[in-house]
Amino acid sequence: MDPEPITEESFTVFISYIIAGAIIGIMMFGFAEIINILDKKHKTQEETLTKLNDLKWEFGGLMESRGKSSGDTHQEVASQKEKGKFGRFMDDVEKARNN
Question: How far is the C-alpha of 64 from the C-alpha of 66, rounded, in Å?
């Protein structure tokens, strides 16, 4: 049995496999990038939620420890904002969103 000589047909098949492989590779990289973007978004949401829960716990603890009613919440938030805690928190949230 003689090996199959290189013909135009077998060369065409070879080129088609190369092109199909390149297309599939590009698609795999595309899906990987989509997964990466979704993972970053999920991590950002987790960080933001954690910081919001910490802030809620901090303000809730302040209210309960001082025996204030819920009507004083706005004043307490304003005083904390003046102290800079709320501003730093919002800066952290913006940084997390931009990453």
Answer: 5
| Separation of alpha carbons 40 and 50, rounded Å | 15
- Sequence spans of domains, the chain: 8-98
Handedness of CA 16, 19, 24, 25 (dihedral sign): positive
Find, among 97, 98, 74, the residue nearest to 86 by Cα.
74
Beta strands in 36-85 (DSSP E): none
Give pLDDT, residue 93. Answer: 75
Q: For residue 58, count CB atoms less than 10 angstroms from its CB and return exposed for 0-12, middle for 13-18, buried for 19 or more.
A: middle
CB 77 within 8 A of CB 86: yes
Entry pTM: 0.46
User: Do 47 and 96 meet the contact criterion of CB atoms below 8 Å apart?
Assistant: yes
Residue 10 banded pLDDT, cuts 50, 70, 90? confident
User: Cβ-count burial of 59 within 10 angstroms (0-12 exposed, 13-18 middle, 19+ buried)?
Assistant: middle
Tokens of 93: 């949230």
